[in-house]
Each structure stands twice: as structure tokens, then as C-alpha cells.
Amino acid sequence: MTRGAVEGLPSAHPLADLLPSVFLEDEFARGFTEGLDPGLAPVFLTLDCLEAYVDPRLTPLDFLPWLAAWVGLDVDETLPEKRRRAVVAEWARLHHKHGTREGLVRLLEVATGGQVQVWESGGTRWSAVPGAELPGDPVPRLHVVVRLPAPTELDVVRIERLVREVRPAHLPFQVEVQSAR
Fold first, then answer.
1. According to the CATH classification, is domain 52-127+135-179 in 3.40.50?
2. Which residues contact 174 (CB under 8 A, 6 or more apart)?
């Protein structure tokens, strides 16, 4: 599909109507500007509807991966359209939480429709006493559990790819899919 190749698309802003009054009755000037209108009509239409192109819920489906790339997400094309749009919209809203447990949990909940639990080895703690015990586990890891009513319907590789994209880059991870009880 090529955008702008709509046969007979009228211009929302015909150039001939914008000519100074001295040229309004000039046949050549009107004919010349009317000849430009078919080429400019798709541009005006796109600009008039620009907010629809940058809204994941409204954008044409082939623009969705492009929008996802704006927030560093590679959308899984095997997801149903409604879920893909929801994932991109949610991640755009949560982009500031990239690499956090909260961001990962919310994105996986939207992508899978299941309950998600994440255990990580890190931690932070404040102490006024030097040499206080450090929080977390010395071995970095991330364990993700997704609980679904029908876990066989979920492609684990797809979830692993999503986790790989939004987790902190240094953390090895494991994904487990379980049946919701």
C-alpha cells in the first residue's frame, strides 16, 4: 500500500483559492495551481490527521512498529492487533520506567493478559553505619513468572524477547509460564 496514491483525492486546501485576487481570474495561474493540488492533497490530509498517526490506538497498522521504535520497543507481529496496539500505548506511557521491575511487570501484563511476578537479585539500602550488610544477592538474576488460565497458548520465546528488550541490560533472566490457579 502506498500512502497518498488515492485516486481523485480532493485537496482540503486548494491552492487556487489561496491566490491573490489579481490572479484569481488568470486561467494559467489557476490551472497551474490546480495541477499541484493532487500532489499536495495527501500531504495536507496527513498533516490534518497527524495526531491519529502518532496515537497507537488509531495509527495505521503498518505505522505501529515505527511508533514502537520511538520508545525502543520491537512489537511482536504475532500478537493480535488489539494487543499490539495496547502494548505500544502502554510502553509509551511507561517508557520512563524502562529497565525497572514495575515497568516490566506492567508491560508483560498487557502483552500476555496474565498475572506477572518478577523477582530480581538487586536491592538498595541506606545506612549511617559504614560496612553495613549489602542488600540483594551477589549473583545478578531476574526471574519472571507469567500465570495464565491457558499457558499452552503463550509462546515463551515471544515473552523472552520482550523481557530481553525492557530488562536492565546486565541482568541474565529466566521466564517461566504457569497455569493460573
1. no
2. 141, 142, 143, 144
